[in-house]
Write a structure and sequence with these properties.
Aspartate Aminotransferase, domain 1, alpha/beta, Arc Repressor Mutant, subunit A, 3 domains, 43% helix, 14% strand, 15 helices, Aspartate Aminotransferase, domain 2, 7-stranded mixed β-sheet
Length: 449
């Protein structure tokens, strides 16, 4: 392909994919000559061709910019984004956090001088006070600030599997991010189903631990992703007893702790840990500070090893986010926003669940979450999930297949529905369609069996 045509294709692709959007300035002709190693004549010819195509426009003495009618080629936005893994950003009130961030940056130089791998001391103290106020004895010097809860999980998995079999028991259905992490690292998964009473197969855990095949267990005891249910207190105590007998770690993911629908979250498993065997992971992305990527790890007996890992991998977490969250917590600026978020989630979960329950056949099971923002819909055996996903997408509904929440995608047919995106006033008809389509396909599955 000629240099002129190659240059045109280079910018067309960038505009179509959204790297350049309407109003964005293109590099100057002189800069393009340098970076693309073309002559001024070739660069001018390419820009004039982009003008002829209506993709860019020349500005007097100001170069070129992407034309207002040049939009990226993208998949249509779904009418119902119920498959999203994130909380609907429209439900967050970020004003108090923004004000806290603006004030906190005044302390940036002094904080920068004292920052270490464990994170900002003032933030760790605020978090410790927050836990103490909830009756949890988690002190500030036990906490390591991480780049979101995902880094906390990453460190915990590394610590739990160091010097042990590359195999973890995981309560399922589970957070897809954890399963993806284990898959990438070649760590095998022993699935542990959580029953409707919040119980686990502790006998299976006992046999596997006795056989020496496990590095530990990973669980989300409070508001499990994606069911929103909690492990029973008896199960949690039995799990801790198991860990102490076998001296094996428990990785606890408590990312949804602040999203109790009634505002009263049960204490984390870490609150019962007396032997330092719980690697406690949590963060602010789902509640206090979405997008700020502030998480924390209480590594128990692995604290020093966790600090060394943190230093070797990311050195320290971003300071501005830590300062902002510390300021927000110090002034108790999170309380109103959290109360509003919980109320919105509870309202949308209740509305979506009530509407779906009326339409689902008896052989479908819909979770009754205590926290979080997901509904988990277990479908009957033989259900044609691929057909449902395709037909839903065709009418503008995006839902997530339950296989994401099982190792290697190998789980029973199910759907994960993000109720934070449900809008009863405008989406009731779409939910009616989904319920009717599920009922129709469930009837076909029953007939084929």
């Amino acid at each position: 392909m000629a240099k002129f045509a190659t240059l045109v294709a280079f910018f067309v692709a960038a505009i179509e994919r959204g790297s350049y959007r309407p109003g964005d300035a293109l590099p100057s002709l002189r800069a393009t000559c340098t970076t693309q190693r073309v002559s001024m004549t070739t660069a001018k010819r390419a820009y004039h061709e982009l003008e002829r195509l209506g993709l860019i426009e020349a500005l007097p003495r100001a170069g070129f910019r992407v034309a207002s009618g040049a939009a990226p080629t993208a998949a249509p936005t779904p009418l119902a984004a119920w498959g999203s893994p994130f909380v609907n950003p429209a439900l967050f009130d970020g004003r108090a956090l923004a004000r806290a961030a603006a004030r906190a940056l005044a302390d940036y130089p002094a904080a920068l001088a004292s920052l270490d791998a464990a994170g900002l001391a003032s933030l760790r103290r605020q978090l410790a006070q927050r836990y103490r106020a909830q009756g949890v004895a988690l002190d500030w010097d036990q906490l390591i600030i991480t780049c979101g809860a995902m880094e906390a999980l990453t460190l915990a998995v590394q610590l739990a599997t160091r010097g042990r079999p590359a195999r973890l028991a995981v309560a399922v259905p589970a957070f897809p991010g954890l399963l993806g992490l284990l898959s990438q690292w070649g760590i095998a998964v022993l699935p542990l189903a959580v029953d409707d009473a919040g119980g686990l197969d502790l006998a299976l855990l006992e046999r596997e631990a006795a056989a020496g095949t496990l590095a530990g267990v990973a669980v989300m005891p409070t508001f499990q992703h994606p069911t929103g249910q909690c492990l029973s207190e008896a199960t949690q105590r039995a799990l801790l007893d198991w860990a102490e007998r076998h001296r094996l770690p428990i990785i606890e993911d408590d990312s949804y702790h602040e999203l109790a629908l009634d505002g009263r979250a049960p204490p984390p498993l870490k609150a019962l840990d007396r032997s330092g065997l719980v690697l406690y992971c949590a963060g602010s992305s789902k509640s206090l500070a979405p997008g700020y990527r502030v998480g924390w790890l209480a590594a128990g007996g692995w604290h020093e090893a966790a600090l060394q890992l943190k230093q070797s991998q990311t050195l320290a977490s971003p300071l501005p986010s830590q300062l902002a969250l510390a300021e927000l917590l110090a002034e108790r600026g999170d309380e109103a926003a959290l109360a509003s978020l919980r109320a919105s989630l509870a309202e949308r979960l209740a509305a979506m669940r009530a509407s779906l329950v009326e339409r689902l056949p008896a052989d479908c099971r819909l979770s009754r979450p205590e926290g979080g923002y997901f509904l988990w819909l277990a479908l009957p055996a033989g259900f044609d999930l691929a057909r449902l996903l395709a037909s839903a997408q065709a009418v503008g509904i995006h839902v997530a297949p339950g296989g994401f929440c099982y190792p290697a995608g190998d789980g029973p047919p199910a759907l994960r529905l993000n109720a934070s995106y449900y809008q009863p006033d405008s989406q009731a008809g779409l939910l009616d369609w989904l319920g009717a389509e599920i009922a129709r396909l469930a009837q076909q599955a029953a007939a084929s069996h």
